[in-house]
User: Which sequence fits this backbone?
């Protein structure tokens, strides 16, 4: 359920927002994996831009293997790229901790990008294709090396003795022993009265047969991988199950004192490239986002086309499942920078803005992770000269007896059935250039209730304050969300606020 502990405001009518905002970049790649800059360089850039946090998520493991049947795990070729696994998880986390300590004004959140599964089609003769190699999730928030070391990712299967798998997998060694024994044994062709034995070498067909028997037993045993925990093979599309295994692993390791997040990366993006003569194709994976249960959400704004903010989108499908009780938790969005190094786009052009309760004096990494995983955020896409900012956003209910309650994004507003509820939004445009130009800038505000368009308004972005009536809500759970678009000033997408409406006594 959505967490209302830190988002439900007390009674009263204070005008000030109940939160303070922390700006951050989500999904940073460094030279540990696919990035071109060191973590120190990226952190210095973040400090120079006045950012409050960054979520570092270098690629955890980048490896592709192709084997020849019938012994695909034994007769194989592979390619790897540098990653957290090649560097060493302890070194990776130590570097993050050192950079974080050296810059007290910046919170550096550790994390990794994970591609749980990929699969092959084709053949070496007709052409090979790797599918879903870049279907990734970002796992972040843990400082425990063992947590990352045990991630259920293809080619990261843990080693050990696994009964009965290990025992069964070692049985082909009997063939190997039989072949070796047959090779060593020589045929007795004569034995004299003194007991001396005269042996003859086997003929080559017998030798070949014995050698093949020994080799088959050895290859069969190696192919079974007896001391590796069975995982998902890369020759069939089991990716949905592999992604669910990863999300379930993260969920089981959450605790009240150790929040860990898992978000899907760019689910509507498609990529295609060739490497060493092999095609790498990653199709959109919106269906996986909806099918897998337990993730915290997905990238809502990123450097590609996305449609999740539109009324009736796949995001609304997931949120409707949640309010109807078919899904255990809602899906929230983040702004995903996916930074790899110098680019034409501004360093901070896609941000995640966390809403932290004002009562928090010293904000910790855990507070940031908690805000992201519980949807107390909104995503921003800015231009080189402009950024739309929210100063206040609340879903407010005023009951017949004069009581007032409010909740912010990610929170739940609990009201009696029939209460009048309204969405209040205030913000402004931060812009370089002439004040006159900023004053003329317009945006389109779209408010969505339970997946349907509730209101669409044109607003002046320089400074805006809007109140939209949600009307008397029926009993049950509902949600309200909104986004603001501008052709030349950027956009924001805000996480939903939930309404829990109970029958009147």
Assistant:
């Amino acid at each position: 359920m959505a967490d209302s502990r830190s988002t439900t405001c007390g009674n009263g009518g204070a005008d000030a927002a109940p939160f303070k905002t922390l700006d951050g970049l989500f999904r940073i790649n460094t030279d540990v994996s696919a990035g071109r800059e060191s973590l120190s360089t990226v952190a210095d850039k973040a400090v120079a831009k006045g950012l409050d946090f960054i979520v570092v998520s270098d690629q955890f493991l980048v490896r592709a293997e192709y084997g020849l049947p019938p012994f695909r795990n034994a007769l194989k070729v592979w390619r790897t790229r540098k990653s957290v696994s090649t560097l060493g998880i302890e070194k990776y986390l130590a570097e993050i901790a050192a950079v974080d300590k050296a810059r007290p004004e910046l919170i550096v959140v550790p994390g990794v990008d994970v591609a749980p599964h990929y699969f092959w089609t084709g053949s070496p003769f007709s052409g090979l294709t790797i599918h879903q190699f870049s279907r990734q999730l970002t796992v972040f928030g843990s400082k425990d090396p063992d947590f990352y070391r045990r991630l259920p990712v293809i080619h990261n299967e843990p080693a050990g003795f696994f009964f009965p798998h290990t025992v069964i997998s070692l049985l082909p060694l009997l063939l190997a022993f039989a072949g070796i024994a047959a090779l060593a044994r020589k045929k007795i062709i004569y034995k004299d009265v003194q007991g001396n034995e005269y042996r003859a070498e086997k003929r080559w067909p017998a030798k070949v047969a014995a050698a093949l028997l020994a080799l088959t037993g050895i290859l069969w045993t190696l192919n079974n991988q007896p001391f590796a925990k069975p995982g998902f093979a890369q020759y069939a599309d089991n990716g949905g199950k592999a992604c669910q295994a990863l999300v379930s692993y993260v969920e089981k390791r959450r605790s009240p004192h150790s929040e860990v997040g898992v978000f899907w990366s760019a689910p509507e993006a498609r990529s295609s490239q060739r490497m060493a003569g092999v095609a790498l194709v990653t199709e959109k994976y919106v269906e996986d986002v909806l099918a897998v249960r337990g993730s915290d959400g997905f990238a809502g704004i990123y450097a590609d086309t996305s449609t999740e903010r539109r009324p009736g989108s796949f995001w609304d499908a997931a949120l409707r499942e949640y309010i109807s009780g078919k899904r255990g938790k809602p899906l929230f969005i983040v702004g995903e920078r996916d930074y790899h190094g110098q680019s034409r786009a501004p360093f901070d052009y896609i941000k995640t803005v966390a809403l932290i309760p004002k009562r928090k004096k010293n904000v910790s990494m855990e507070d940031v992770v908690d805000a992201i995983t519980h949807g107390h955020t909104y995503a921003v896409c800015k231009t080189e000269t402009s950024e739309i900012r929210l100063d206040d956003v609340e879903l407010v209910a005023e009951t017949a007896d004069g009581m007032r309650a409010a909740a912010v994004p990610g929170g739940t507003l609990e009201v009696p059935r029939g209460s009048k509820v309204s969405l209040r939004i205030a913000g402004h445009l931060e812009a370089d250039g002439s004040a006159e130009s900023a004053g003329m800038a317009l945006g389109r505000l779209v408010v969505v209730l339970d997946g349907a368009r509730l209101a669409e308004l044109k607003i002046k972005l320089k400074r805006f304050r809007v109140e939209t009536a949600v009307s008397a809500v029926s009993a049950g759970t509902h949600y309200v969300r909104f986004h603001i678009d501008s052709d030349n000033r950027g956009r924001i997408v805000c996480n939903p606020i939930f309404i829990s409406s109970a029958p009147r006594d």
